[in-house]
Write the structure tokens for this entry.
Amino acid sequence: MAKERDNLPDPLLARLRQAGTPQRSIPAEIDSAILQDAHAAIARRRRMRLFLRSSVGLAAAACVLLVVGLWSFMPGRNSNDINHDGRTTIADAFTLARKRAAGDNTITQERIDQVAYAAVHLDDGRGATR
């Protein structure tokens, strides 16, 4: 390739070198305006990214609070309310006893006793039990 370049006339080589360099320069005002527009676009993207990240986080937190709030107001949260009628009665203990008699080995006699005790547990109004 160097040999081919040596065979070219000097005026042609000079013209080829000039063709590789820009002939016009960009005015400083236009260059500055393009640079400012680029900085503004980057700043907008950063703000949008921050907004989306915080929005997703806030939406997730709101969903968690909503679920926790709804869960706390759901009836039947009493673990002793087996038949989900809103109260712990002797029927709940009887339901557990029937399930155990039917072969449900996950229900212990202690659990049945606990529900039965909760059903008949009396409070005299002073915090003492009878």
In short: Residues 31 and 125 are 84 Å apart (CA to CA). The longest helix spans residues 28-72. The chain has a mean pLDDT of 83.
